[in-house]
Amino acid sequence: MSVEIVAVPDADTGPLVALLHDAEEDDERIRAALRDPACRAYAARLGGETVGAAVVRWDRREPSELLYIAVDPARRGTGVGRRLVAAVQAELPVHGRSLLVGTANCSLDNIAFYQRCGFRMHSVRRDFFAYIQPPLSEHGIPMLDMIVFSYTSPTATG
């Protein structure tokens, strides 16, 4: 069975919050992004089941930003995340030329994932996660900074 990536109409984004909670602990921040008219939600569907989701803030002034992406834990490592990113990257030329995405300095799997998807290191937002107290950690590394990656489309219409 093949994974289908579809844009989700604004009225139908509510059920994506639970899945996207894995990408952002604050559900209200997710809901705010889903209500933002500059943002677009995408779902990865397998059969009739939503197994992944992404939210992108498109910006013609550049750069656009992949705000959230999450894949059902049972489907990780199966290519769903890559399919979501590839669908967003394919749509990028309609909106501009560059796309940013950020992840925590300690999220080593995410750092590797974005680079495998063609993103390059762009910048560091120091102390971005300072508001999280006590600090979270992964791999024994405290979550402090956001590592920002950039993808540049090889073609653009605008």
Largest sheet features: 7 strands, mixed
Strand order within the widest beta sheet: 1-2-3-4-5-9-6
Task: Report low-confidence residues grouped into runs of 5 or more.
Answer: none
Radius of gyration: 15 Å
- Span between termini: 35 Å
The tally of helices reads: 4
Overview of this protein structure:
This protein has 4 helices and 9 strands, in the order βααβββαβαββββ. It has helices spanning 16-20, 27-35, 80-95, 108-116, and strands at 3-8, 39-46, 49-57, 64-71, 98-104, 120-125, 137-138, 141-142, 146-152. The strands form 2 sheets. Strands 1-2-3-4-5-9-6 form a 7-stranded mixed sheet. A two-stranded antiparallel ribbon has the order 7-8.
Features of this protein?
single chain; alpha+beta; 7-stranded mixed β-sheet; 4 helices; 158 residues; two-stranded antiparallel ribbon
Précis, in short:
The chain is α+β, with helices and mostly antiparallel strands and 158 residues long.
Topology:
Layout: E1 3-8, H1 16-20, H2 27-35, E2 39-46, E3 49-57, E4 64-71, H3 80-95, E5 98-104, H4 108-116, E6 120-125, E7 137-138, E8 141-142, E9 146-152
Parallel strand pairs: 4-5
Antiparallel strand pairs: 1-2, 2-3, 3-4, 5-9, 6-9, 7-8
